[in-house]
Every structure is written in C-alpha cells, then in structure tokens.
Design brief:
The chain is about 40% helix and about 15% strand. The protein is of the alpha/beta class. Helix 1 packs antiparallel against helix 3 and helix 1 crosses helix 8.
C-alpha cells in the first residue's frame, strides 16, 4: 500500500488485538505509541484480553489510564482462576468492574466500533459480537474452558474466543483501509519447563501459534513484541513491565515500518494544512 499521496492515505484504520491473558496489557503500550503519533482507529476487534482492551479503548479511556485501572481495580486478578474450590468458578464476579467503568454497557454508545470474538460452546462455532450487552460479550470472550463456567447469552453458552480465533482480524477485512494487528503471543525457543503451569501455558501458545500466521497474513502491519515469552497469562503483577514492552515495540514499528512511517507523515502533513490553511484563504 502506497501511503505517500493524499489519494491513497488510509482513512479507516482497523486494529486487531489478540488474546493472551496479562500479556494483553502489551496492547495498551502499542496503542499508546500509535496514538502518540496521531493514529486513531475506526474499528477494533479483540479476543479474550484483547476484547477487554478493545472495550475500554473504544469507551474513550487512554491506554495509560486503563493501565492504572488494572493496577487499582485488579481487573485481571478477578479473571484469574481460583482453583481451591475444586470446580468451575464464575467469571461474572468481574462484571461489576466493567459496569463501573463503562456504565452504559452498550456497543452502540462506544466511541469506536468494536467486534468481540467468542465461541458458542453448544454449536461449536465462532461468534462475533457487535451489539447486545457489552459486559457479557467481553466476559464470554475471556471465559477459559475448564476453569470458568460458560457465559450464557440468549440461551447460548459461550467460552473464550481464542479457542477458535485468538487473533480476530477477519471482521476488519473489507471494512478498513489499513489493518494493524497487535499480537502478544510470540513463541520463543526454550530449553526447560519450570512448572506445570508453565507447561500448560507453553502448550496453549504452541496451539495458538499454529494458526496465527493465517491471521497475520490478513494484516498490513503486525506488531508482536518478542519479550513477552517469559510471562505467563496470569502474571498479573507484571502489568507495568508488559505495558512498557508493548510501548517500545510500538515505537520501533513506527520508526521501522515503511507503511506506518507513511501514515504518520501523512497525518503530520494534514495537521499542518489544517493549521496553516490554504493560500487561497489568505
């Protein structure tokens, strides 16, 4: 895509956010870097942790403000499994926090159009939510099977969208001029497994990455920090570190990706034109 002329500058920029537990906080850093350079999004899609990020960013929260909420309200800790009860636990305990910060609870009232991926457990198919109760859609997308009870919406049971699509780029295709993907599931080479939880997390990442390239190919730009492999999906105390990794990777993409450099240059040019006006106006 040539972004160096006014005719070809992308007007609608879509953002796809992968799942990945607390690693999804890296999305906030990526978004902060992009928005710091004037990039705004017309449509955001997300799965699991990416669905949470999509909802809050689309509701108008700045990435740094949402990071502060994560620290103070411990939203991701409420999504952490409590296994001591010996059975499935309800993820609905996190619902009040979403309602507290997004009280209108409506897709339609968000500042940016979003799509949230979840899996219909009964029918065994991927579903994209674009309307209805926002909080239930977000929680359905985060509902890890075997740990949390499925979220029931209109009589259907829903679980984590990452089971069938952990990088939901498809809803953006045909609706955006430029698609940016933020993935937090880079798979590093390792030589040892330190714990049972580490093994489960590693196995999940291998499964996710098996289909990731297909989704990446639909993006014009993919931003995927390589420093996240050492963080587990429930390492909630590492949110600040993960955010900064995403931020640095976002800055690196802006400096090193020709498409992004063209977009940013075009945005700067349009701001200059609006500020100075046309010679004909003088």
């Amino acid at each position: 895509m040539d972004v160096n002329t006014d005719q070809q500058k992308p007007k609608k920029i879509g953002l796809a956010l992968s799942g990945g537990g607390i690693r999804g906080v890296s999305h906030l850093g990526v978004i902060q870097a992009l928005t710091d350079h004037g990039i705004q999004f017309s449509h955001i899609s997300g799965t699991s942790a990416g669905a949470i990020g999509a909802a809050f960013i689309a509701a108008g929260y700045a990435p740094q403000d949402f990071l502060q909420m994560i620290r103070e309200a411990r939203l991701f800790k409420l999504l952490r499994p409590a296994m001591s009860g010996g059975g499935l636990v309800s993820i609905l305990k996190a619902r009040f926090l979403i309602n507290q910060y997004i009280p209108h609870n409506s897709f339609e009232k968000l500042n940016t159009r979003i799509t949230i991926a979840a899996v219909d457990l009964g029918e065994g198919k991927l579903v994209y939510f674009t309307d209805g109760e926002l909080d239930l859609a977000v929680l359905a997308s985060c509902c890890l099977p075997g740990i949390f009870k499925p979220i029931v919406i209109n009589g259907h049971m829903y679980i984590d969208g990452g089971i069938l699509n952990n990088f939901p780029v498809e809803p953006l295709v045909g609706n955006c001029d430029l698609i940016i993907g933020s993935s937090c599931n880079h798979l590093p080479v390792i030589t040892e497994i330190k714990s049972f939880g580490n093994m489960i997390d590693r196995a999940a990442m291998i499964a996710i990455n098996a289909s990731l390239n297909t989704h990446k190919s639909l993006c014009d730009i993919v931003i995927e920090p390589h420093g996240l492999g050492g963080y587990g999906v429930f390492d909630t105390d590492c949110a600040e570190e993960i955010y900064m990794i995403g931020y640095e990777e976002g800055l690196k993409a802006i400096k090193g990706n020709e498409i992004l450099k063209g977009v940013v240059a075009g945005l700067k040019g349009s701001r200059k034109v609006r500020k100075t006006g046309s010679p004909k106006d003088k």
